[in-house]
Amino acid sequence: KAGVTQTPRYLIKTRGQQVTLSCSPISGHRSVSWYQQTPGQGLQFLFEYFSETQRNKGNFPGRFSGRQFSNSRSEMNVSTLELGDSALYLCASRPGGSYNEQFFGPGTRLTVL
Amino acid sequence: QQQVKQSPQSLIVQKGGISIINCAYENTAFDYFPWYQQFPGKGPALLIAIRPDVSEKKEGRFTISFNKSAKQFSLHIMDSQPGDSATYFCAADYLTGGGNKLTFGTGTQLKVEL
């Protein structure tokens, strides 16, 4: 099976712009979670989607949003970018239900100038 | 508010030695404790995980020790190898309800020297 794929791998934006990141989970996986990784804050949970519904949400402002499509692919959107949004954004998928292990993608490196 | 504290921040171990990374959590509702390994340019990968009803779990050279009363757990890497050089994250989660909301520690950069 192919692993979790994320596009694009690298992105450069300027303050005030918005950005959309994409994640394709492992085939058959219904749960997709997003994490932000920065040197200062480490890995922080953004949100989880399961069967097109947001099931859990972390402590991030409303500028961060996401969605999941019927084929389980997910996108996350960040509006009105700030310098502090520069980070590695990781997507992780799992089958759902009681299966706990999450499989992470390689991430999208977002730089905000 | 950091719910999972991890130490040390960095660790240098000689080849063949034992690497030990410690974590402590605050929320007693956590019931799943995984460890992740991350290489540069890659996403984290699950290494080993434990539930609070078990005090120790071993998989190959990797062992998790869990102390429920102290709210602490640790990763031991036996016979450490240069290929183990990576960043290690402990984490905690609630399994109740089927959802996921992993809370990560701050990470430990491990370097295994020849």
Descriptive report:
The complex is a heterodimer of chains A (about 110) and B (about 110). Chain A is mostly beta strands and about 110 residues long. Chain A has no helices and eleven strands. Chain A has strands at about 5, 10-15, 20-25, 30-40, 40-50, 55, 65-70, 75-80, 85-95, 105, 110. In chain A, the strands form two sheets. In chain A, strands 2, 4, 5, 6, 9, 10 and 11 form a seven-stranded mixed beta sheet that branches. A four-stranded antiparallel beta sheet of chain A has the order 1-3-8-7, with no helix packed on it. In chain A, a hairpin with a 3-residue loop joins strand 4 (about 30-40) and strand 5 (about 40-50). Chain A is globular. The mean pLDDT of chain A is about 95. In chain B, about 0% of the residues lie in helices and about 50% in strands. Chain B has strands at about 5, 10-15, 20-25, 35-40, 45-50, 55-60, 60-65, 70-75, 85-90, 105, 110-114. In chain B, the strands form two sheets. In chain B, strands 2, 4, 5, 9, 10 and 11 form a six-stranded mixed beta sheet that branches. In chain B, strand 6 (about 55-60) and strand 7 form a beta hairpin. Chain B is globular, with a radius of gyration of 14 Å. The model of chain B has no long low-confidence stretch (mean pLDDT about 90). At the A-B interface, strand 4, strand 5, strand 9 and strand 10 of A face strand 5 and strand 10 of B.
What would you say about this model in short?
Chain A is an all-beta fold.
- The DSSP helix count of chain B reads 0
Q: Strand-residue fraction of chain A?
A: over 45%
Measured between the Cα atoms of the first and last residue of chain A, the distance is 37 Å
- Largest sheet report of chain B: 6 strands, mixed
Summing up helix and strand content along with how strands pair, one would put the structural category of chain B as mainly beta
Q: Please indicate the percent range of residues of chain B in DSSP E strands (runs of 2 or more).
A: over 45%
Low-confidence stretches of chain A: none
